Amino acid sequence: MFTALEFFAGSGLVRLGLAPEFETLWANDNCPKKRAVYVANHPWEKFHLADIQDVRGRDLPAADLAWASFPCQDLSLAGNLNGMNTGTRSGLFWDWIRVLKELEEHGKRPPVLVAENVVGFVVADQGKHFRQAYGALRDLGYRVGAVVIDANAFVPQSRPRAFMIAVAQDIPLDGLSQQFPSEPFHPTGLVRTSFVVDDPGWVWWSLPFPKGKRPVFSDLCERDAPCDPPSKTRELCAMLSSLNKKKLDAARQVKMFFAGTAYRRTRPDEGGNKVQRLEIRFDGIAGCLRTPNGGSSRQTVILVDQGLVRSRLMTVRECARLMGAPDTYQLQGSYNDGYRAMGDAVAVPVTRWLTYHLLTPLTARSRSVLRPESTFEECRITEWGSGEAAGTASCLSRDFDV
């Protein structure tokens, strides 16, 4: 089994995706509410509640992998786009770099790194922030590349995320990288940013596309969850534009069960005035989960059954299912606490895909460099869904060929 350090560990979904190949030796976050979710599902003694600015590399164990899902608020297109300046929330990336330097000074350099964030990390400010982060990892002596993975390849949620993957120079990349970019994991925005980086050492990581049946939102929704009173549903339906009313009318006419999702958006009306609209979708895919900072940040579920329309907020368990977490995953605290824990997380099957197809073979090769007699098969655990990953919903863990 390989070992990992989790920075900005949140509610522990990355740990689910890394298991069983990786054992987390140490995890860190500064949010007590996320810690409550993490330790309800994973060993509490591995979790270190502290600001990363107070973390020192000398105090951490040596590990094969260091994963950092650093804050996205200053890089998200829905946020303020302040970027990764020191002192901003996304600027905590530089404290991660500091800790990596300290690990190296104490002979505990991780051979494999992952930095995860929203796609704005790649494209914001014409790739400026990504180029700075890329340069920092190159200065530490790593080879670096990136992929963008949308969780909707595995779960019914539109959730593209960027993953910067860095490896020690001496790890062979045969079969794990490719000469040129290709869709869907190297979209146009990432290719453009690679031109901005302008480094001949850039790595185009190679990933297969999943083959298997992805569930639709109707498969995951809680049909017996309490709904809004009819007056609230009528109020929401009154916020529909003519286009969205047509979507709802089409669903009602089919006379079968549909579960759609909706977000409130501010849009201009026919006179150019800004009004709040409810935009719904019945394509089986939920919108990207957000943190519940306000009513418009929480997703509405629109249920249509034999022509009857009902509405309610998305449940916390539905949020967890959209992130690929099993129903056994405990969600502590209030509704907003659970919603935030999932909205800030990384979808389990996305981490799982990266782990199986890139992180595990890369780490095995790093071990082989240190111990030439070892082999990939000796180092890895091949059973899908055992250990901490056991219990993940079958539609997320067994219907995809790994």
Key terms:
globular; 14 helices; 7-stranded mixed sheet; alpha/beta; single chain; 402 residues; 4-stranded antiparallel sheet
Structure characterization notes:
The protein is α/β, with parallel strands linked by helices and 402 residues long. 31% of the residues lie in helices and 20% in strands. It has helices at 13-18, 32-41, 93-105, 120-123, 128-139, 188-197, 217-220, 230-237, 242-253, 316-322, 335-343, 348-370, 376-379, 394-397; strands spanning 2-7, 22-29, 47-49, 65-68, 112-118, 142-150, 160-168, 177-178, 204-205, 258-268, 274-281, 300-305, 308-313. It has a seven-stranded mixed sheet, with helices on both faces. Strands 11-10-12-13 form a four-stranded antiparallel sheet. A hairpin with a 2-residue loop joins strand 12 and strand 13 (308-313). Helix 5 crosses helix 6 (188-197). The model is unreliable at 374-398 (pLDDT under 50).
Which bin fits the share of residues in helices? 25-40%
Query: Average pLDDT value?
Result: 88
C-alpha geometry: globular
Structural class designation? alpha/beta
Query: Counting H and I runs of at least 4 residues, what is the number of helices?
Result: 14
Q: How are the secondary structure elements laid out?
A:
Blueprint: E1 2-7, H1 13-18, E2 22-29, H2 32-41, E3 47-49, E4 65-68, H3 93-105, E5 112-118, H4 120-123, H5 128-139, E6 142-150, E7 160-168, E8 177-178, H6 188-197, E9 204-205, H7 217-220, H8 230-237, H9 242-253, E10 258-268, E11 274-281, E12 300-305, E13 308-313, H10 316-322, H11 335-343, H12 348-370, H13 376-379, H14 394-397
